[in-house]
């Protein structure tokens, strides 16, 4: 069964460093998302991406964040200068379409620890 | 913005019993989705119910949706120890496709 994959599973970085989190969405899906979950808190939406551009983003997704689909399979989240409060589990998700009737399938997550 | 809020926050039952979790939200939605998360792991999609549906079944799962009360319930029948996990409801807004998650219900099934 097709699934969303994410690498790395765990990333440790120092404050101020740049990190890139990678995702391979399900191959025929058109919509891609990033969410995050700070330990013990709710899963929060960061950004959605369709047709090579951001379709929606949250207040969390400020200028320090960017997303890219560099090729036909990968979808990346870059944090330019990490802060301690960026420590969280980051989930990538994809869906077949975006108009009300499609499930979002999540990857296993990347645990980002900023020290 | 809308929120899905689950209750109870935690539920402990014996294997074989049924588990019911509830979710409330605040605004109009396109659909509501339930997810399971094992400790520290990813989110597994369980079931999606559209705003024009009232009930949906999938194996041992039964989901109801009452849009007039802005609430949903997830029933797991004949629970198993392997059902131990956190369960989240997530609503998709009427306009846009981001999911808004609730805080989740921690279910523990004792064998």
Description:
- The complex is a heterodimer of chains A (115) and B (111).
- Chain A is an all-beta fold and 115 residues long.
- Chain A has strands at 5-7, 10-13, 19-24, 31-37, 43-50, 53-57, 65-68, 75-79, 88-95, 105-106, 110-114.
- Chain A is globular.
- In chain A, 36% of the residues are buried.
- Chain B is mostly beta strands and 111 residues long.
- Chain B is built from no helices and 11 strands.
- In chain B, the strands form 2 sheets. In chain B, strands 2, 4, 5, 9, 10 and 11 form a 6-stranded mixed beta sheet that branches.
- The model of chain B has no long low-confidence stretch (mean pLDDT 92).
- Classes of the chains: A mainly beta (115), B mainly beta (111).
- The A-B interface holds A 31, 33, 35, 42-45, 48, 55-56, 58, 89, 91, 93, 95, 98-101, 103-109, 111 and B 30-31, 33, 35, 40-45, 48, 50-51, 88, 90, 92, 96-104.
Which residues of chain B form runs of ≥5 with pLDDT under 50? none
Query: Average pLDDT value of chain B?
Result: 92
What Rg of chain B, in angstroms, do the CA atoms define?
A: 13 Å
The helicity of chain B comes to: under 10%
Main sheet characteristics of chain A: 7 strands, mixed
The overall average pLDDT of chain A, rounded, is 93
Largest pleated sheet of chain B: 6 strands, mixed
Total helices of chain B: the number is 0
């Amino acid at each position: 069964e097709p699934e969303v994959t994410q690498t790395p599973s765990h990333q440790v970085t120092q404050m101020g460093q740049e990190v890139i989190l990678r995702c391979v969405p399900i191959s025929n899906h058109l919509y891609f998302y990033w969410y995050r979950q700070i330990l013990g808190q709710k899963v929060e939406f960061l950004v959605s991406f369709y047709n090579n551009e951001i379709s929606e983003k949250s207040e969390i997704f400020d200028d320090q964040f960017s997303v890219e689909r560099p090729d036909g399979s990968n979808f990346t989240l870059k944090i330019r200068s990490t802060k301690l409060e960026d420590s969280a589990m980051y989930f990538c998700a994809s869906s077949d379409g975006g108009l009300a009737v499609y499930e979002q399938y999540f990857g296993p997550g990347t645990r980002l620890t900023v020290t | 913005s809308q929120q899905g809020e689950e209750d109870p926050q935690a539920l402990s039952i014996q294997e074989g019993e049924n588990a019911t979790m509830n979710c409330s939200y605040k605004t109009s939605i396109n659909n509501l989705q339930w997810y399971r998360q094992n400790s520290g792991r990813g989110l597994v999609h369980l079931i999606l119910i559209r705003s024009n549906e009232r009930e949906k079944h999938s194996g041992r799962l039964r989901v109801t949706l009452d849009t007039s009360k802005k609430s949903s319930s997830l029933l797991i029948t004949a629970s198993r120890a392997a059902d131990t996990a956190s369960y989240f409801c997530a609503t998709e807004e009427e306009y846009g496709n981001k999911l808004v998650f609730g805080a989740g219900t921690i279910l523990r099934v004792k064998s």
